[in-house]
Write a structure and sequence with these properties.
The complex is a heterodimer of chains A (382) and B (352). With 382 residues, chain A is of the alpha/beta class. Chain A has 13 helices and eleven strands. In chain B, strand 9 and strand 10 form a beta hairpin.
Chain lengths: 382, 352
């Protein structure tokens, strides 16, 4: 900790800033304390409120002017509780990976808040941000490009300790890395090997070990198994579930494979063009979907059972996802929706329990952003 | 149907329809690659047949040899380092491996066509899609540029690309992933081949688009009565479209079955393991079954049954004797047409 504050002073060397810096330091210490305290019982560990990310589109070389924006994420809200898995599904381009980057503070949000234990991480900086980042880690999609080919496994997994030396004292690191290898089911003797000496599934285990190194509370998994073979996918999924129980982790599990998301998630959010279309428990979303997009998405999943397939209704959507630079007015799904009426073009449907289901004791009563929400089971054979 | 008139310009590709056997027959095919670490045996004795109008799905993980088999059929294998030490590939009764390059060239594209996985890297980024589609007609049929473009527009219409006329001069990057895959399909269809090999045609696509593309492929196949070899690792996609399935592991076919049968009663422990390891959409299961271990290194395939180190049923015989792909029967000896399993203990697996 000592060398940390020193480096910060070096950065704030300009004389006028010293006063401000001390004030900041006080609030910063407070924030760090809040971040390091355990989460209160029953409180969500992460609260996302109206999160927005627009990427500007510019024109001109010298005098750049903004001509529009890609609305990658456009007002997303959800909660994440300790020890639970929130699945996020959607087609490519719907903004699910941008959400992951925003939660990691790898991208700066255009608007909206992300509260981690009550602290808005979009406004944090310095020590407090560093403390947050320690507690939110990520596992990436492609195990072939997310590991540096010139570093040994020991260096890859141990690198987080260079940035957060308080977690593992210098002399202790090698043992710690070996422990981590053991935890993810790799031989601890492989510590001096390079990534190319491992198979895809083993590399993803290395990626998971790196994510676990700093004892985080939240792990954001962006398509962690989609690059793996079927028989290896199950191994990695089982490992992730085991680790969750062992370390009481919260996962945000981003994927396009709806079967895997159902398997691992407690709650599921369905995204479409930067907005949340529907969110609920896995039973609510998969067995009682009320948003037409969710229904279409679920009905399009090929089921590995020819007998079950024949009784199933298939909704085949026409066309592609519209450009997020110029999304349709009103409900964003209306251009591909078979239920769309004039109202859908004028009014943006809010993510709330649909009026028809309010107060009813049914699984269909969950948040869905559709004017004409209607329950329809598309997963089970009729 | 007016413009693609096969009798006018192609010298009757289907005139030789009198051949009675299957469209394609692969017999005891072996493919190996020389690498720095030794000889990698990618395909070790594959047999299968495809008839007109039939869909054969070849299912397997990466490294199982499913794509290499397809490349050998197409004659696009890199040789060297690849080598075909043994085997025959009969197309309409003629062994293609014994043909000259010129003869094979006449078959490739006109009679057997291929759809590749990644449409973006399979299309040339600096040529318009119309030019690339038209190339098939210019090269194989000697049409003029103008005629070829008209045919390209027609093809794009056929694979349901909206506003084909306006988009024929667009470049591949201007199309979405689903549309690009449609262009790949159009290109394969251009000369109305008898057999199409689709190598993971929808793997790079979203589920909603995947459903569109698979539907299109099935429609076109029915329309032209083509044979289709669908190569995939996705058990779900296979269940939707295939007539029969061949499951590959370490360069061998370990199980063959009609599609319904395979899912109901797998006769090989590997197939069973695969089916058990995928989570279900319609119910929440407990822990997933995972096949332990990793697929074998092709330069060091285990002796005996290649699956034995990962198999829960493995016994001594599995480590020494390679099981042959034998017919599978009912418990009482009744025939199960089209079924075969390369497991010493298939009886226990299917009936136990």
């Amino acid at each position: 900790m000592a060398d940390l504050s020193k480096s910060e002073e070096a950065v704030d060397a300009t004389p006028n800033v010293t006063e401000v810096a001390t004030v900041d330091a006080a609030t910063e210490t407070e924030a760090v304390a809040a971040i390091e305290a355990p989460v209160q019982q029953g409180e969500p560990i992460l609260q996302v409120r109206n999160l927005v990310k627009h990427f500007p589109l510019t024109q001109g070389i010298l005098f750049k002017r903004q001509v529009g924006a890609v609305k990658a994420v456009d007002g997303i809200s959800f909660d994440l509780y300790q020890g639970e898995t929130l699945g996020i599904v959607g087609e490519s381009g719907c903004g699910k990976s941008t959400v992951a980057k925003l939660l990691m503070t790898l991208e700066k949000a255009t608007a909206g808040e992300v509260f981690y234990k009550g602290q808005d991480i979009t406004k944090l900086s310095g020590r407090a941000l560093k403390a947050v980042r320690r507690n939110i880690q990520m596992v990436f999609q492609d195990p072939y490009t997310s590991l540096n080919p010139r570093m040994t496994v020991g260096d890859i997994i141990g690198e987080p300790f260079d940035i957060h030396p308080e977690v593992a004292p210098k002399g202790d690191r090698r043992r710690k890395v070996q422990d981590l290898l053991d935890v993810v089911g790799l031989n601890p003797e492989y510590i001096n090997r390079y990534p190319h000496q491992f198979s895809g599934g083993q590399r993803q285990r290395i990626g998971i070990a790196r994510g676990l190194a700093l004892n985080p509370e939240i792990i954001i998994c962006d398509e962690p198994v989609s690059a793996l073979d079927v028989s290896v996918q199950a191994q990695v999924i089982n490992l992730m579930e085991k680790l969750q129980d062992e370390f009481n982790l919260s996962y945000i599990f981003i994927a396009h494979d709806l079967s895997i998301v159902r398997h691992i998630s407690d709650r599921v959010g369905v995204m479409y063009l930067g907005k949340m279309a529907e969110i609920g428990t896995d039973t609510q979303i998969y067995d009682h979907p009320t948003h037409p997009y969710t229904q279409a998405l679920l009905s399009a999943v090929p089921v590995p059972d020819p007998a079950a397939r024949e009784g199933r209704e298939r909704i085949i959507l026409t066309g592609d996802v519209p450009s997020p630079a110029n999304p349709p007015s009103g409900c964003r799904f209306r251009t591909r929706c078979w239920k769309a009426e004039d109202k859908c073009a004028e009014e943006v449907p809010l993510l709330a329990i649909p009026q028809v289901f309010v107060g009813k004791d049914t699984q269909a009563a969950h948040e869905s952003a559709c004017h004409f929400a209607e329950e329809k089971d598309v997963v089970h054979a009729a | 149907m007016t413009t693609i008139d096969k009798t006018s310009s192609v010298p009757s590709p289907r005139g030789s329809d009198d051949f009675g056997g299957p469209l394609l027959e692969v017999r005891d095919l072996h493919v190996e690659f020389s690498t720095r670490d030794g000889v990698a045996k990618a395909v070790n004795g594959v047999n299968y047949t495809v008839s007109a109008g039939e869909t054969l799905a070849v299912l397997g993980e990466s490294g199982s040899g499913k794509s290499v088999t397809a490349q050998a059929i197409m004659g696009i294998l890199d040789m060297p380092p690849g080598r075909i030490p043994k085997g025959e590939i009969f197309f309409r009764g003629q062994d293609m491996l014994k043909m000259s390059n010129d003869e094979r060239r006449k078959i490739r594209g006109q009679k057997i066509a291929m759809i590749f996985q990644d449409a973006l890297s399979s299309l040339n980024p600096v040529l318009s899609v119309g030019y690339q589609l038209g190339e098939m007609f210019r090269v194989h049929q000697g049409l003029s540029k103008k005629e070829a473009k008209a045919k390209a527009i027609d093809l794009m219409d056929r694979v349901k690309i909206p506003a084909a006329k306006a988009r024929v001069n667009d470049y591949p990057h201007q199309f979405s992933g689903g549309m690009r895959q449609r262009i790949m399909i159009a290109m394969a269809l251009a000369l109305e081949p008898d057999l199409i090999i689709a190598d993971e045609p929808t793997t790079a696509l979203d589920v909603t688009v995947q459903a569109q593309v698979m539907d299109l492929l099935a429609d076109l196949q029915r329309e032209y009565n083509m044979g289709l070899i669908l190569i995939t690792h996705d058990l779900g996609v296979v269940a939707d479209v295939a007539d029969k399935i061949a499951v590959m592991y370490a360069g061998r076919i370990v199980e063959t079955a009609p599609v319904h049968e395979l899912y109901k009663r797998p006769a090989h422990p590997y197939t069973r393991g695969l089916l058990d390891s995928i989570p279900r959409l319609d119910q929440k299961g407990s822990e997933l079954y995972a096949i332990k271990g990793l697929p074998p290194n092709l330069t060091r395939i285990p002796s005996g049954c290649a699956f034995n180190p990962r198999c829960p049923k493995a016994q001594d015989i599995c480590r020494t004797d390679i099981p042959a792909l034998l017919p599978v029967t009912e418990r009482d000896g009744g025939e199960l047409p089209g079924r075969g399993s390369a497991c010493h203990f298939w009886k226990e697996t299917i009936h136990g």
